[in-house]
Fold:
Amino acid sequence: MEKLLGNNPTQLRDIAVAAGLPGFTGMQIAQWIYGKRVRTLSEMTNLSKAGREKLAETCEVGIAEPIGRAESSDGTRKYLFPVNGDPDNAVEAVMIPDGDRKTLCVSSQAGCKMGCKFCMTGRQGFHGNLSAADILSQFFGIDEAEELSNAVFMGMGEPLDNWEEVKRVIEVLTAPWGLGWSPKRITLSTIGVLPNLKRYLDESRCHLAVSLHDPFPAERLALMPAEKAFPIEEVVALIRQYDFSGQRRVSFEYTMFAGHNDTPRHADALLRLLHGLECRVNLIRFHRIPDFPYGTSSQAAMEAFRDRLSRGGITATIRASRGEDILAACGLLAGQHNHAE
Structure:
């Protein structure tokens, strides 16, 4: 069945016309799905009954329901979604509450090709790109769907390795006929897939977060095999071509490993790499995973690293860890069926 979720009004018009409905039905369908958040064609009452029945022969709204839920002691909630109806091929989305904000950490792939050594998602390999409908189901299928204030593409997968579908999702989130969000409410995280990074910077106004983790190319390559194809120095050089002095922001994610990348030498190299760039560095506490040799940096080491960056002119913050007790924190998502219903 063709999923209507993820299509824009023009695409929905073409689908409607192919089913024998008038062209204006496309906008009506968009309003039902994105404005009124209906789950079935039968709820679209301003479409003729015959038209709905005709559409239903080949189409469905396409919002997938979560097949698992877990809640952290800090209020973070993790949801498990099937991909194409297959519960054995599942992805996770994490809702993070913070005061009056509710941020959704959304997945864009089942697994990941990038193979970062410290990430559970990367360790499981790649199982396929998510469609726009799969990704949007994470927004529409959770209990807090109508309360979300922000979104971060920081869940399972590399968003820029699936840019065409992610782009469709961003269009739905930001278009007046969609959810009407400001691009400032959305951040995309990437290891720096260069061709599509340029497209993202040219084709959207959303924020950017770059997974950096080590300023020395050889050391970064040992952690992140994608450094070979997408060197961090080239990624930063591309970013320098864009203006981040206004409302659009760029940040760099830096997971800290005790005695490996948390030294003054690394802080100084990071200052050189990012010198003059309007940016922020987010320092992330490493969450231990099996068969990985590095440990977690101490709070004192993280604070010293932050302060050294700050003295060098770069804003740095230590990110609060959320949802670790339900394996929802950075690097721990693996699409596992370990949820309490």
Confidence is low (pLDDT under 50) at residues 337-341. The chain is about 30% helix and 20% strand. Residues 2-60 form a domain with the DNA polymerase; domain 1 fold (CATH 1.10.150.530).
